[in-house]
Amino acid sequence: MIVHGGWGGGWEWTVVARALRERGHDVFTPTLTGMGERVHLGRPEVGLATHVEDVLAVLELEELHDVVLCGHSYGGMPVSGAADLAAERIALVIYIDALVPCDGQSAFDLLPAEFAELARASAAEHGDGWRVPIPPTLLPPRGWIAEEERARYIGRLRAQPLASFADAVRLTGALEFLPRAFVRCTGGDLASDAGADPIAPFAARSMRKGWAYCELGAPHDPHLTDPAGTAAVLDELAAAV
Fold it and tell me: Could you give the residue numbers annotated as active site?
């Protein structure tokens, strides 16, 4: 299962999922509540706990076991919470250039302080106070992919519930006993885009803890710029479980 990052949806990972299915994997790419095609379900109280429940529901209702559970970027938050609560179903957790929280941390805690200020201001300017449009600096730069494809991608991004960034994850400790891996994307300059590189500390932590670790020469959104390479890396990590 692959859980998308901020402002996106399961649609982002369709090409990667197709490539993984061709390699023999069953793949699920759920969309979190209030995002993507589920944007109509958004409301002020939709937060991180809701997104954790989204992932847990797929695990339960699809009767999934021995799951390789992947989270990209913000997706590392709900993936961590869900894996902790359903550890018996998880074979491996893969963080794809993702946030890796400890108990009691929110995405705002893990991202540069400027982002929290910007997000709250953007939500207020949005008109309802609870939805955060994607900051222009985080949009895929021109030149990464064909301009037509870039426009199609940006056109499908949606504002994200503010509470999903502000709410803290609750972990029991079960996550610490699961095999984990980290995919570090090295082909972009996230520091200049986000004000600081929020992912570097998690990549370093993964290496200190001896997780499986690999680097992918693609920017922060590898599913957009190198879906074949992304699928190959995930396939390799899954095969090693």
Answer: 73
Query: Tell me, what's the pLDDT at 112?
Result: 93
Query: What does the pLDDT read at residue 126?
Result: 76
- The CATH number of residue 169's host domain is 3.40.50.1820
Work out the number of other CB atoms within 10 angstroms of the CB of residue 44: 14
Decide: pTM greater than 0.85. yes
CB neighbours of residue 218 within 10 Å: 22
The DSSP H or E segment spanning 95 is strand 90-96
Is 118 a member of any domain? yes
Which structural domain, as residue segments, surrounds residue 72? 2-52+62-88+98-224
User: 89: number of CA atoms within 13 Å, CB side?
Assistant: 20
Yes or no: say if 165 and 132 are a contact pair by the CB < 8 Å rule: yes
Residue 57 lies in a domain: no
Total count of domains within the chain: 1
Report if residue 32 sits inside a domain: yes
Asked, for residue 127, whether it belongs to a domain, the answer is yes
pLDDT along the chain (241 residues), means of 10: 98 98 98 98 97 98 98 98 98 98 98 94 86 93 93 97 98 98 88 72 97 96 97 97 83
CA distance 187 to 25: 27
Strand 160-161, strand 131-132: pairing: antiparallel
Burial 206-215 (b: 16+ CB within 10 A, else e): beeeebbbee
d(CA 46, CA 55): 14
